Amino acid sequence: MQKIMNMMVNSCKKTTELIDKQLFTSLTAKEKMQLQVHKTMCKTCSAYEHQSKIIDSIIGKWFTGSSKVNVKLPEDKKIKIIEEIKKA
Questions:
Q1: What is the DSSP string of 16-45?
Q2: What is the DSSP letter of 72?
Q3: Which of 43-47, 64-68, 76-80, 83-87 has the lowest mean pLDDT?
Q4: Tens digits of per-residue pLDDT, 31-54?
Q5: Is the dihedral angle over the CA atoms 41, 42, 45, 46 positive or is it negative?
Q6: pTM of the predicted model over 0.70
Q7: Is 74 in contact with 48 (CB distance < 8 Å)?
Q8: CB within 8 A of 37, min separation 6: which ones?
Q9: In the prediction, which pLDDT does 83 show?
Q10: CA pair distance 1, 51, nearest whole angstrom
Q11: 61 burial via Cβ count (<10 Å: 0-12, 13-18, 19+)
Q12: Are 53 and 46 in contact (CB under 8 A)?
């Protein structure tokens, strides 16, 4: 039973990686379960997820032009950033 719990309960570092990863790609069923289990026990990681979604939304508005601040990033740079995030 302890071995199963160790597989399902991640560290905060791994959990924040999963939180960031889910913004750009789908999580596996195991990753989703690990994320949910950890967040039920850790208010800090739940808060991180909430803040991360807010920041992502704000940054997304910059790139779509729906903000007063308009940042234009070349498409090749966007692709490179997404590829680097997926590697992590």
A1: HHHHHHHTTSPPPHHHHHHHHHHHHH-HHH
A2: -
A3: 64-68
A4: 999 999 999 999 999 999 999 989
A5: positive
A6: no
A7: no
A8: 8, 9
A9: 87
A10: 34
A11: middle
A12: no
Cβ-Cβ contacts under 8 Å for 44 (sequence gap 6 or more)? 12
- Half-sphere exposure (Cβ direction) of 45: Cα atoms closer than 13 Å: 21
CA distance 62 to 9: 35
H or E element at residue 57: helix 43-64
Q: Which two tokens stand for residue 35?
A: 């994320």
d(CA 82, CA 25): 10
What's 70's DSSP letter? -
**Six-digit token string for 12:** 């905060």
Find where tokens 């026990």 sit. 41
* Nearest-angstrom CA–CA distance, 12 and 43: 11
